[in-house]
Every structure is written in C-alpha cells, then in structure tokens.
C-alpha cells in the first residue's frame, strides 16, 4: 500500500480544506482546541503521532527481599477518569525468572508484552534450557523505549521488571517511557513512587534485606495507602512473587477498607 | 532400477517424457541416504526419534541435531540434508511467530504443515533453485486438538499419520510400525520409538550412532522437549534390551 503512494499526484481539489480540516471562514472562527497535555508530532504520509495515553494502568510497586522480588499492582485499567476495566491482570509472569508489572498506556503494555512473549518462544527454540534473565530483559526494554522516544513516538509505559538470576540473586528495576532505568530494593511507578517508596524506605533495616514476611506486609500496607489516596485505584490487586522456589502471580487480594475515619473529618 | 534421466533432469522446471520431475526424485535420493527418522502418535503425546549417525569422534555429542523446536508445543525432525533442515526450521519458526503475532495463539499444526509444504513445493517449480533435500516430520500436542503428526515429502506433498518414517531404513521402520497399537500411553510410546530405531540401525554399515528424541504431550505439559532425561533413558534402554534379545536369539547353538 505504502509503495503505491504517488507523491507527484495533484491534490483532489484546490482551495478547500484538507481532509479532516474545516473551512477557514473570515471572522476568526475558534481553532479546534487541543488538549494541553496532548503533544502531537508529524509522522510519515500525513499521519500524526500522539503522546496521549488513552486506557491507563495506575501504579505498580516492586519490593526486593532476601530471596527474590514481589511486584504488586491493582487490577484496574482506567479510561481517563472512568474506572473502565476492573479485573485486569497488570503483573505478568514472563518466564521462570522474570516478572513484569505494567503501568501507563495499557495498549502499549499489551503491545510490548506480545513482543516479549515471542522473545521467550525464540529462547525456547534454541533448545538449551536457558531462559532470559531479568536484567537482560530490562536492558532490552531500555533500548526499545529510548529509541521510540528519540523518534518522538513513545510507548507511553512505566514498567517494573523483577526476578532472580540463575544463582538466585534478586533483581528489581524500573524502566520508563524515556528509556531511563534504575535498580533498587524498592521501585514504583505512578503515585506509588510518591506514596509507597518513602513508606518502604522508612521500614528498611540498615544492614540487611527484607524477609519475605516483611516484604508481604509492606506490600499490603502500601496497597492500602494507595487505595485510600490515589483516585485511579480500586481495592482489588494482584501480587507477583519470584524466587528460586518458583515464579507466579497470586491473587486477587482485597484491601481491607475501613472508611469509618471519614466521620472524624471535619472542616471541609 | 533407478532410471537415468538424461537431459530431462537438469532443472526442476522440466518434466521428463514419462511425466516425472527428476530433480524431485533426486531430492528423495538425498533423503534416503540420511539416518532414519520416525514419528509415532500416541494417546496423549507424540514422539520423534532420530538415528543420528556419528561420522567422527571429534564431534560434540549434541552436534548435528536433526530435531528442532518450532514453537512451544511443536517439534520438527528432518531426514536429508541437515543444512536445508536448519533453513526450513527457521522458515517454520517464522511462520509460527507470524501466526501468533496475528492471532495470539499457537499455530494449529495443520496450518503450519500447509505453510511449510507450500514453501517446500515452491522450490520445485523453478529452474533457478533446487528442491530441498528434506523429508520433514512435524509433531504437536495441545489440550484441544490432542496429538498431531504430519510428514512433508521433498515434492511438497504432505499427509497426516499415526506413525511415519524417513531415511535409510524407512521400509524396515514402517514394517515395525505396522505392528504397533494406536493410542499408546507415554511409556509404551517412548519404548517403541527406542526399539524401532535401535532395531533398524545397521551396525555393519554405520558403526556409531546416537539416539535422539523429541517429545511433546501432556506429560511434558504441552512443551516440546528434546532429549528429556528420564524418558530418553527409557527409550535407549528399551532399544538396547531389544537388540540384546535379538543378538541372543542369533547365538543359539
């Protein structure tokens, strides 16, 4: 189709608006408002690329403990301010070593997950029983995301990549839409970055890693805080756990909601 | 016995006066020189077994493998020119990936077989290329379709089978397979594969060989595994035992 494009052809009509545009009458008609957060850039053959996210997932939280990692995300995909899809898994098991938690534009998450799944099948076709390590996947994602953003056509996602390597050393990193990545014992996307990370950092023992019990307790607390304070969350969430003992996504769990404190709020 | 196709055998785009395309027949001859390959369909699994003839002690044990994983649940074994086999395996993987990209589902084996057979057939139409010297056996298992087994000839024709064989001892293997029951359970399936390969192997012509096996079924949780440790041991032991029995039969008096 693209090969048949005749760039020398005359336009179908003169002195009128291009398709999709309006006639410009004299008298100052109001120009079509573009949403301020929407940045469109020109693509090939008259197309436009938009950086607006349409259906979005909210926060993802990842915590590293002595034997592995835990990733938690609620099960909501919003359509702007509408809580549209309320039972969506946003934490994925990629292979026996890797978990991926996706937030941001969910179509982009699904798109890159399709590519990642195909990569895992290619791994299997090599017939050497070697599965990709989480650090390698995170590195690959930074390359893809950086190149997309450099072409002004980003995948609008913010992901947490977590897992263990062959010796059982845990790995936890955050990769964002600009191709920026960093590794830490706690990483988060969205609101969890502001609400949950300080909570976890406060509880971190100075001289050792978290235990699995501490990590689970922290996940529970943080998901509760996020539900109360982030307006794009719901009370149902799933948790992915990856260690040498196994890798899988557990849930769905419910936040223990208790709104009775609302009665004590006075004054506004 | 073998007809000489003087003048009509130079390219695949020529028929001979008696209606044969000699290049395809010559491709089949290349297949007949290679080590035997068999595929057997059981109740809940399909096994592919290869008589891999070791031409030099300098090779690593897993070198020159003729069984490939095409998709999570699809395996392929080839008889004939192994270089062609590597190439067609790659084509098959691309076709399976392309199907999965469009439909987010593993390619049904019938569709993969049609695509690969069509590809192999295309190479039999033109004088600029030669046909693939390959006989390709495809196997898969999934929860819905169950076990599937297909074979593609060098001419590009393909059929579904309960059990099939290619290569040196094709006739002998087929005779052995006709004695098998259909819908065998996994243990019998794997043992039969071992027995047949060890039986048809000709000790006088080719001294050293390595038995290799590809298995996909409920027991492997729907994944195609090459030389899964326990079941391959079982097959090899069954093969050895069958051979010893035969040898001891010959040693009477």
TrEMBL record, chain A:
One of its GO terms (molecular function) is hydrolase activity. CDD domains: proteasome_beta_type_4. It holds the Pfam family Proteasome. One of its GO terms (cellular component) is cytoplasm. It is found in: Cytoplasm; Nucleus. One of its GO terms (biological process) is proteolysis involved in protein catabolic process. Keywords: Cytoplasm, Hydrolase, Nucleus, Proteasome. The keyword Isomerase does not apply. Gene3D superfamilies: Glutamine Phosphoribosylpyrophosphate, subunit 1, domain 1 (3.60.20.10). InterPro entries: Ntn_hydrolases_N, Proteasome_beta4, Proteasome_bsu_CS, Proteasome_sua/b, Proteasome_suB-type. Non-catalytic component of the proteasome, a multicatalytic proteinase complex which is characterized by its ability to cleave peptides with Arg, Phe, Tyr, Leu, and Glu adjacent to the leaving group at neutral or slightly basic pH. The proteasome has an ATP-dependent proteolytic activity. The 26S proteasome consists of a 20S proteasome core and two 19S regulatory subunits. The 20S proteasome core is composed of 28 subunits that are arranged in four stacked rings, resulting in a barrel-shaped structure. The two end rings are each formed by seven alpha subunits, and the two central rings are each formed by seven beta subunits. The catalytic chamber with the active sites is on the inside of the barrel. Belongs to the peptidase T1B family. PANTHER family: METALLOPROTEASE TLDD, PROTEASOME SUBUNIT BETA. This is Proteasome subunit beta. It comes from Drosophila yakuba (Fruit fly). The gene is Dyak\GE25292.
TrEMBL record, chain B:
CDD domains: proteasome_alpha_type_3. It is found in: Cytoplasm; Nucleus. Pfam families: Proteasome (PF00227), Proteasome_A_N (PF10584). InterPro entries: Ntn_hydrolases_N (IPR029055), Proteasome_alpha (IPR050115), Proteasome_alpha-type (IPR023332), Proteasome_asu_N (IPR000426), Proteasome_sua/b (IPR001353). It comes from the Eukaryota. One of its GO terms (molecular function) is hydrolase activity. Keywords: Cytoplasm, Hydrolase, Nucleus, Proteasome. Residues 227-253 are annotated as: Disordered. Residues 8-30 form the Proteasome alpha-type subunits domain. Residues 231-253 have a biased composition (Basic and acidic residues). One of its GO terms (biological process) is proteasome-mediated ubiquitin-dependent protein catabolic process. GO terms for cellular component: cytoplasm; nucleus; proteasome core complex, alpha-subunit complex. Belongs to the peptidase T1A family. The proteasome is a multicatalytic proteinase complex which is characterized by its ability to cleave peptides with Arg, Phe, Tyr, Leu, and Glu adjacent to the leaving group at neutral or slightly basic pH. The proteasome has an ATP-dependent proteolytic activity. The 20S proteasome core is composed of 28 subunits that are arranged in four stacked rings, resulting in a barrel-shaped structure. The two end rings are each formed by seven alpha subunits, and the two central rings are each formed by seven beta subunits. This is Proteasome subunit alpha type.
């Amino acid at each position: 189709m693209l090969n048949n494009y005749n760039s020398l052809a005359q336009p179908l009509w003169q002195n009128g608006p291009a398709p999709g545009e309006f006639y410009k009458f004299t008298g100052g008609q109001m120009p079509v408002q573009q949403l301020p957060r929407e940045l469109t850039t020109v693509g090939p053959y008259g197309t436009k690329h938009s950086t607006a996210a349409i259906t979005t997932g909210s926060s993802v939280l990842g915590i590293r403990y002595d034997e592995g990692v835990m990733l938690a995300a609620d099960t909501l995909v919003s359509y702007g301010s509408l809580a549209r899809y309320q039972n969506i898994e946003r934490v994925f098991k990629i292979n026996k070593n890797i978990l991926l938690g996706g937030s941001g534009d969910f179509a982009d998450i699904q798109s890159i997950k399709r590519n990642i799944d195909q990569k895992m099948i290619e791994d299997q076709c090599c017939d050497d029983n070697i599965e990709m390590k989480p650090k390698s996947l995170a590195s690959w994602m930074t390359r893809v995301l950086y190149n997309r953003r450099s072409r002004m056509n980003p995948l609008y996602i913010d992901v947490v990549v977590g897992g263990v390597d062959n010796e059982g050393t845990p790995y936890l990193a955050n990769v964002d839409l600009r191709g920026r990545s960093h590794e830490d014992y706690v990483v988060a996307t969205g609101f969890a970055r502001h609400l949950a990370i300080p909570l976890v950092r406060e509880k971190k023992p100075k001289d050792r890693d978290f235990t699995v019990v501490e990590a689970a307790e922290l996940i529970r607390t943080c998901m509760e805080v996020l539900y109360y304070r982030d307006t794009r969350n719901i009370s149902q969430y799933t948790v992915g756990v990856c260690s040498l003992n196994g890798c899988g996504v557990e849930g769905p769990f419910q936040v223990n909601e208790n709104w009775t404190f609302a009665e004590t709020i006075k004054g506004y | 016995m073998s007809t000489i196709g003087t003048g009509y055998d130079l390219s695949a785009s020529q028929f001979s006066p008696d209606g044969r395309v000699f290049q395809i027949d010559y491709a089949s001859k290349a297949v007949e020189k290679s080590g035997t390959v068999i595929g057997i369909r059981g109740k809940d699994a399909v096994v592919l077994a290869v008589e891999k003839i070791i031409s030099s002690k300098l090779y690593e044990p897993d070198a020159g493998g003729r069984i490939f994983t095409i998709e999570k649940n699809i395996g392929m074994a080839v008889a004939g020119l192994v270089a062609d086999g590597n190439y067609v395996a790659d084509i098959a993987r691309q076709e399976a990936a392309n199907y999965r990209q469009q439909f987010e589902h593993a390619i049904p084996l019938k569709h993969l077989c049609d695509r690969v057979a069509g590809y192999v057939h295309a190479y039999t139409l033109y004088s600029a290329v030669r046909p693939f010297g390959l006989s390709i056996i495809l196997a898969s298992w999934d929860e819905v379709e169950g076990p599937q087994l297909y074979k593609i000839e060098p001419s590009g024709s393909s059929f579904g089978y309960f059990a099939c064989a290619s290569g040196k001892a094709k006739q002998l293997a087929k005779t052995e397979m006709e004695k098998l029951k259909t819908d065998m359970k996994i243990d019998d399936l794997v043992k039969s594969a071992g027995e047949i390969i060890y039986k048809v192997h000709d000790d006088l012509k080719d001294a050293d060989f390595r038995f290799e096996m590809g298995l996909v079924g409920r027991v492997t949780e729907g994944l195609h595994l090459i030389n899964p440790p326990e079941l391959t041991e079982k097959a090899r032991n069954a093969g050895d035992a069958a051979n010893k029995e035969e040898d001891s039969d010959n040693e009477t008096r």
